[in-house]
Specification:
The complex is a heterodimer of chains A (256) and B (382). Chain A is an alpha/beta fold and 256 residues long. In chain A, 36% of the residues lie in helices and 25% in strands. Chain A binds chain B through residues 64, 66, 89-90, 92-93, 95-97, 99, 101, 103-109, 116-117, 120-122, 149, 151-152, 162, 165-166, 169, and chain B through 268, 270-271, 273-281, 284, 288-289, 292-293, 296, 373, 376-377, 379-381.
Chain lengths: 256, 382
């Protein structure tokens, strides 16, 4: 390989950050992704909408390589991360992901949830990890709950800690997989607020969501994923007000 | 077709179909309690009475094959005599009568009791009554066979004098073997359990073969063969106690592996995904995220394995242990073969219970604590 593994952190402004080429995913006999091509630039906030079972989450998980595409390639920062030789552990430190079910470690405090990877993966000292984690927790408004265990926090609070945990490793892109779907309605706002601020700060984001208001206001691009294909893509407002395909029109009629 | 009178302005009330209220819930409960108490009192009082009074070897006992030459014959005789005493007999029949009455009354009336509390009284009374009937019947049955012969062999404590120290040492050895075996088994089991979860068949297969072998062959065979395998096969001469500990560790490891595997599999998939998404390797994710959570969940089943192992250590009786290595059961076996008195085994059972009952309580408490979900929060940090 001409490029050593550690060079990914070298900036590459103007180039596409993520590129998917003809990605297919099969689960046994189930063909979930049927050839997805996608390019994400830096500072893009790509919103993915579509009916359930359409492959939204699978697409997101293929980008973070939690699922390996059956065929096709995923390029991250000009590196083919579907190549068997790619160091996925290293690649994943550049890709933050937040899950619908939070997935905080229940046996650790909020602070420890954040510092763990900083120490064990990035090799920071205890003090450095602590300071960085406290900064990130404060950033999501959870600074005063650093010593609480996940079981003592509300869903919205847990999800904000999960965002802080992902942000702390300083990823180049953040993936959000229906992060408000499991929340009580009154807790959705506090999580969306954090995400809106993050987008405002220029974070590259890919967001699978059912929050159409968020999609319209915050997304710089929107994908409508239907039956494993990108059925339509474009500017969110444009797509909301002038959907081109019947499928998108039907979908929007149901969710709006 | 009945037509309702149109003029009726009375509010309609559903007919009362509850029927008459049954009487006497407290009496039924009292009958049930009394029936059990009468039996227990009658049996215990006459046993104590005979044990404390001047004791002789009666003709009745001699007829029951208790001979004057037997060491402790008089003590055994008083057990038999007390069992056949009119006090005992009377209390047994009285208990059957009271218990039967409680059962009949309770079973026939509990449905018509006015409140839940009274119904519970009636049901409890009936249940206690039936237990009294069964208990008394069992004692009568036992008494009608050869209680003298049984008491002579299993309840004759005279030969046990001087064995106190041996039993204490036996209990110590039993606990040493079980504890060391369990510790070794936990280490082996954790490694094997993780191996069985590998994606690769080449890694899983040896672990599965090991587990199936040790789960599929009798422990008594593993003990006996293990000793000679080490001695003849590998030329290692070790004390029987050490061999036993090694075999117990190997055997418990197979069972603990399944416990750990189940415990790890019970952790939500998202935990592994979250750890990996932060850049942790599989090993790091296991070590920091998955295993610490799994360990909490496997504590009760592992303690349960420990209780089982305490009893299974009795199998070392097949090994040629030296006297200082004897466990509880081998101590009893030695005493029994020296005196032909099986009461040593009765004492052994009591010794096992003294060790296991507190542990069983501890297991139940741990399970309850885990079920209540406290561990997820309060057990953290360590």
């Amino acid at each position: 390989m001409s490029e050593p593994a550690g060079s990914v952190r070298a900036q590459s402004v103007g180039k596409p950050l993520i590129r998917l080429e003809d990605v297919h995913k099969w689960f046994g006999n189930l063909h979930v992704l049927k050839g997805v091509d996608l390019t994400m630039q830096q500072r893009d906030v790509v919103v993915v909408i579509g009916p359930s079972g359409g492959g939204k989450s699978t697409l997101l998980r293929c980008v973070s390589l939690l699922e390996v595409p059956t065929t096709g390639q995923v390029w991250f920062d000009n590196r083919n991360i579907t190549d068997i030789r790619a160091d996925l552990n290293e690649v994943r430190t550049h890709i933050g992901i937040v899950f619908q079910a939070y997935n905080l470690f229940p046996h650790m405090t909020a602070l420890r949830n954040v510092t763990l990877a900083l120490e064990k993966v990035l090799g920071l000292s205890d003090d450095e990890a602590h300071d960085r984690a406290m900064d990130q927790l404060a950033r999501v408004g959870m600074g005063n709950k650093a010593s609480a265990y996940p079981g003592q926090l509300s869903g919205g609070q847990q999800q904000r800690v999960a965002i802080a945990r992902a942000l702390a490793i300083e990823p180049k892109v953040m993936l959000f997989d229906e992060v408000t779907s499991a929340l009580d309605p009154e807790l959705v706002g506090e999580v969306l607020e954090v995400m809106i601020r993050l987008a405002g700060e220029g974070m590259t984001m890919m967001v699978v969501t059912h929050e159409m208001g968020f999609a319209r206001e915050v997304g710089t691009r929107m994908l409508f994923l239907d039956e494993g294909r990108i059925a339509e893509e474009g500017q969110p407002r444009e797509m909301f007000y002038h959907p081109q395909s019947d499928r998108l029109r039907q979908f929007l009629a149901k969710v709006l | 077709m009945a037509v309702r009178e149109a003029t009726s302005i009375e509010p309609e009330v559903a007919p009362d179909v509850r029927g008459p209220t049954a009487p006497l819930p407290a009496t039924i409960l009292a009958l049930g309690v009394a029936s059990l108490a009468v039996i227990a009192l009658g049996v215990v009082v006459s046993q104590v009475n005979y044990a404390l009074s001047d004791r002789v070897l009666t003709q009745n006992c001699i007829d029951e094959q208790i001979s004057p030459e037997d060491n402790g014959a008089i003590g055994v005789c008083s057990i038999v005599e007390a069992l056949e005493d009119p006090t005992t007999t009377g209390s047994l029949y009285l208990g059957i009568g009271l218990g039967g009455l409680a059962l009949v009354l309770g079973a026939s009336t509990y449905r018509r009791m006015e409140t839940k509390r009274r119904r519970d009284h009636a049901i409890t009374g009936a249940v206690l009554g039936s237990q009294a009937v069964l208990l008394a019947a069992a004692i009568l049955w036992f008494r009608s066979a050869s209680p003298g012969l049984f008491a002579k062999h299993f309840l004759n404590f005279a030969d046990l004098q001087g064995y106190g120290g041996a039993f204490v040492r036996g209990a110590r050895n039993t606990l040493i073997m079980a504890f060391a075996g369990e510790l070794g088994g936990i280490v082996i089991g954790l490694v094997l359990g993780i191996l069985t979860l590998s994606q690769r068949r080449a890694v899983r297969a040896p672990a599965r073969i090991y587990i199936n072998f040790f789960r599929g062959t009798p422990l008594i065979w593993q003990l006996a063969t293990g000793y000679f395998l080490l001695l003849f096969g590998f030329g290692i001469r070790m004390s029987g106690l050490v061999v036993a500990i090694i075999v117990f560790a190997l055997n418990t490891g197979a069972y603990a592996a399944e416990v750990f595997r189940a415990g790890i599999q019970s952790i939500e998939r998202g935990q592994m995904e979250a750890a990996r998404s932060l850049g942790m390797s599989y090993t790091q994710a296991m070590r920091y995220a998955i295993v610490p959570q799994a360990v909490r969940r496997v504590i009760p089943p592992l303690m349960n394995e420990f209780v089982i192992l305490i009893k299974d250590t009795a199998l070392v009786v097949v090994l040629g242990l030296t006297a200082t290595e004897y466990d509880i059961f081998t101590t009893a076996r030695e005493g029994q073969s020296a005196t032909f008195n099986a009461t040593f085994f009765t004492v052994a059972a009591i010794a096992y219970l003294i060790v296991t009952l507190p542990l069983i309580r501890l297991v139940n408490a741990a399970e309850k604590r885990l079920r209540s979900g406290l561990v997820g929060i309060a057990g953290a940090g360590g």
